[in-house]
Specification:
Helix content is about 35%, strand content about 15%. The chain contains eight helices and six strands, in the order H-H-H-E-H-H-E-E-E-H-E-H-E-H. The strands form two sheets. A four-stranded antiparallel sheet has the order 1-2-6-5, with helices on both faces. A two-stranded antiparallel ribbon has the order 3-4.
């Protein structure tokens, strides 16, 4: 009988209609992680990928903060998550806070959040190439984050990313398994040529 992890991986292993790079084809967002930490050398590569993301006028309007499990900062950042996200994110060995820099020398940067998204997907795909999976969370108390941490001025906390290796789903709570067994297929009719 197949293990739960094998069933989940089968559901989340897509069959692209056209060729794509393996990091995109294998990317998905699990809700259960291994306790194995992410070494600093891998985190350096992950953040380096974000550094080379495209941005308007090359302003790179992003800033990332990260924390390892069992640290005080992890506990504090974790405390800002919604109850739903707390139910599964507690297994992630690393949490990353992604912030958009909303203003620069010229004033408001209206492209900041778009550019942050480009940096985040670069970071996630680099992590994927190293064997780490990521799940992004928008449901957290952004004002509380600003109270708890000395966030750089003009930085808007926007997303928290849980990151790590996939955990042993045979040990996961049934609620998490039920979420992961939901295939949520991708839409196919989303791009067409302008005429």
């Amino acid at each position: 009988m197949p293990k739960i992890k094998d069933k989940i991986l089968k559901i989340h292993t897509p069959s692209p209609c056209y060729p794509v790079i393996k990091e995109i084809a294998s990317r998905w967002s699990p809700r259960f992680f291994s306790d194995e930490d992410i070494p600093q050398k891998d985190l350096n590569s992950i953040f380096e990928a974000a550094r080379f993301a495209p941005s308007a006028h090359n302003q790179q309007p992003w800033h990332f903060y990260f924390t390892h499990k069992k640290s005080r900062s992890y506990t504090k950042l974790f405390s800002t998550l919604s109850d739903y996200n707390k139910s599964w994110a507690k297994t992630a060995p690393v949490l990353i806070l992604a912030c958009a820099i909303e203003e620069n020398k010229k004033g408001e940067n209206i492209f900041a959040f778009y550019d942050l998204g480009a940096a985040v997907i670069s970071l996630i795909l680099q992590a994927q190439s190293l064997g780490y999976y990521s799940r992004q969370m928008a449901l957290f108390d952004k004002e509380e984050v600003k109270k708890l941490f000395p966030i750089t001025k003009n930085c808007a906390p926007y997303i928290i990313i849980a990151m790590g290796k996939i955990g042993n789903f045979d040990k996961a709570p049934q609620e998490i398994i039920n979420y992961e067994l939901d295939p949520r297929p991708r839409k196919t009719a989303f791009a067409e040529e302008l005429k």
